[in-house]
Amino acid sequence: MGKIKILFLYSELMGYNSAWFKGLNEASDVEILVVHWDKNKLTPFQTEEIGNVTYLKRSILTYKELLKTCEAFNPNIVYISGWMDKDYLKIGYQLRKNGSILIGGLDTHWTGSLKQHLGRIPLSIALGKIFDYLFVPGRYQFEYAKKLGFSNDQIIMGLYCANLELFLPIKGKKALKNILYIGRFSEIKRPLWLYDVFNEIKEEYKDWSLTMIGNGPLKPGLKSTHQIEIIDFLQPALLTPYIENASFFCHVSAHEPWGLVIHEMAAAGLPIISTNECGAASLFVKHGYNGKIFDAKSKSDFKAKLIQMMNMSEQELITMGQRSKELSKQITPEIWAYTFLSVLEK
């Protein structure tokens, strides 16, 4: 086979997408076209220029123009990031008829809700007409893919991969006693849990500080103080000094389909506190080994786990951080790229 043409019909691009594209470039001779949403974005992430990768803003083309562009590109593989964009699905359906291999992304947990049960059969019929494979991040999504009628051979594991070239080289400093949060300031992410609990205990732990980085609707309620620093969203490459100054990372979401930041912070060598509702924690956080897992429904359990981490010795935290870095290597851009390209051999 000559040059492999890959089309990504994507929602909002994030930092980890750069790791995908670089991994594919290193794994094979590829040409990549990325169509992406550019309106009403949740974060101001800026795309990275990468060789053999062309970015196309979704908003500048009509459906007919986009279909014509995609058909002219004539991709070997098409990846669609879910099924929220109906135009993407219609284009994917046509490209599959033209001979392209279609891969769909699925990061939703199977919860067994009434909505999921009612929608399972019609959704499985619709998706079966479009996708050859579903690419899922972990075991929670694997179960959902199975219930949608996809066989083991049609389910690819390891959807998300951190941009490890940014995070693996980071080396932490000692005895800084700083807790780090990076994420959206929104209800589902629950930054106020961390903010409130830290304020409750900060008088007892006057040598500790909290750094929170992000943007979102809850930001007005977060105030910088002597022990708390609130910082606007930063591009991934600018996070290094804050990670180097952290003792451990805290993830507080009520629900998180995956949570790529867990992989990033593990790669950076930080111990991690995470909710048991975070998909990535099932792979990158082992309770007592490189961090703590708390009950997502219990604020008191979160508080207890936070205090346990703050009472650990410097050496215990250093050891946990080293373990995090090793766990992060379970998925690398190289592994991701070869996993993605394996559909050409099936």
What can you tell me about this protein's structure?
This protein has helices spanning 15-27, 63-73, 86-97, 114-128, 139-147, 164-167, 191-201, 240-244, 260-267, 281-284, 299-310, 314-327, 333-341, and strands at residues 4-10, 30-36, 53-57, 77-80, 101-105, 133-136, 155-157, 178-182, 209-213, 228-231, 248-250, 272-275, 291-294. Strand 5, helix 4 and strand 6 (133-136) form a beta-alpha-beta unit. It is globular. It is an alpha/beta fold and 346 residues long. Helix 1 (15-27) packs across helix 13. The longest helix has 15 residues, at 114-128. The two termini are 14 Å apart. It folds into two domains: 4-161 and 331-345, Glycogen Phosphorylase B (Rossmann fold); 165-330, Rossmann fold. It contains 13 helices and 13 strands. The strands form two sheets. Strands 3-2-1-4-5-6-7 form a seven-stranded parallel beta sheet, sandwiched between helices. A six-stranded parallel beta sheet has the order 10-9-8-11-12-13, sandwiched between helices.
Concise account of the structure shown:
This protein is of the alpha/beta class and about 350 residues long. It has helices at about 15-25, 65-75, 85-95, 115-130, 140-145, 165, 190-200, 240-245, 260-265, 280-285, 300-310, 315-325, 335-340, and strands at about 5-10, 30-35, 55, 75-80, 100-105, 135, 155, 180, 210-215, 230, 250, 270-275, 290-295.
